[in-house]
Structures are given as structure tokens and as C-alpha cells.
Amino acid sequence: MKIYISHSRKFDFQNELYKVLRESELNSNHEFILPHEQSDMPFNTKELFMNKGCDVVVAEVSYPATGQGIELGWADMLEIPIICIYKEGIEPSQSLHTVSKRFLMYTSSENMLEDISGALRIYE
User: Fold this and answer.
1) Distance of alpha carbon 70 from alpha carbon 86, whole angstroms
2) Cα separation of 45 and 94, whole Å?
3) pLDDT (tens digit, 9 = 90+) per residue, 80-119?
4) Where are any strands of DSSP class E within 1-124?
5) Are strands 82-87 and 2-7 parallel, antiparallel or unpaired?
6) How far, in Å, CA of 75 to CA of 15, rounded?
7) Is 39 exposed, middle or buried (0-12, 13-18, 19+ CB in 10 A)?
8) Separation of alpha carbons 80 and 59, rounded Å
9) Per-residue model confidence (pLDDT) at position 54
10) What pLDDT score does 124 carry?
């Protein structure tokens, strides 16, 4: 399954998200699209979504971001499933409930991976 990872740039996503995903078993079973893994340049998410370049979006929504909101709006419009994940103690924006019904709170990197793995089974 091709999974696009959406996130804010307001945290250390390279270490807290990308590295964790790349070093996990999930990386062997799925293709992760990490938009800023190789470059900080803008990523053409709209084109990816319109060309059916991913099966599901996993959105780390602990840190509100306008660009991420735009991405999630495109995914919703194109009927790409969205799974929202967020850190314990964070209250995600209520507006996210208009684009996703699946919200998973995590307490650690290991817990985040378990939650994502379980949620992806629904879409396999």
C-alpha cells in the first residue's frame, strides 16, 4: 500500500516521524511517501493525489499547519482515506473531523507504529 505522510514542519519530523517509520517493519510492508525526506522544497501533493499516487494519508496533526489543512482538503475531496495521529496531551483541531473519522492518540514512537499498523489493516 502507498501511504502519504502529512505533517507540519513545526517539529523534528525527520527524527520523530520519518526515521521511526523508515526503521519500522511497516516500511518493509508498505511504500511510504515522505514529502520532505530528501528536500525542503515544496512537494506537489495535489498532483500526487489527483494521479492516484497513494492509497491512504496518515496525518500527524499534533501541530496545526495551513499547508497540511490544504493537503487534507484535497485528499478528502478525492476520497483518499485519512488517518489522523496525534501526541498524548494534544487537542487536535476540531475542523479535522470534517475530513476524517479516524483519530489515534499515541504516547510513544512504538505506540504510534502500533496504531498506524492497526489502522492500515482496515484499508488493505
Assistant:
1) 18
2) 23
3) 999 999 999 999 999 999 999 999 999 999 999 999 999 9
4) 2-7, 31-33, 56-60, 82-87, 102-106
5) unpaired
6) 25
7) exposed
8) 12
9) 98
10) 84
User: For residue 95, which of 49, 119, 64 has the smallest C-alpha distance?
Assistant: 64
Q: Report the alpha-carbon distance of residue 14 to residue 113 in Å, rounded.
A: 15
Tell me the domain boundaries of the chain: 2-121
Segment holding 109, helix H or strand E: helix 109-121
CATH entry 3.40.50.450 includes domain 2-121? yes
Residue with cell 489515534: 104
Q: How many residues does the structure list for the chain?
A: 124
Confidence class for position 40, pLDDT limits 50, 70, 90: confident
